[in-house]
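Many introductory courses stop at the sequence. We go one step further.
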Amino acid sequence: MINRHIVASALLGALMLVVSPALAQDPGKPCQADVKKLCPNVKAGHGAILNCLEGKQDQISQACKDEVKAKVQMVMDACKGDVEKLCSTVNPGEGKIIQCLKKNQAQVSAGCKNVFAQAKAKAQSMQKAQ
């Protein structure tokens, strides 16, 4: 069985798709001030915001850390079983877990699919609002 730490790392990569647009563009989210302050010139997409924040964890507000932790937990709850079942031989990094889940989309659980569908819908609505 795949190591819990590896699953968490892989799902953090998945989280980038879920959280990045919201962190960068959705006013009222706990991370907005942190993004403006710590990553002012970073454009959202492909995890760029989270990559920027990752190196500055000691400067991130507790409210933002709590928000990201909640999102990670949401993705882990929804997709952990799918990653363990369908992608246990995939080394995390560079979107490989996401690619694996997409490749096996027909077998991915409804809960995991729902998390990504919600993220895609939110990202699309944010792009239209710009």
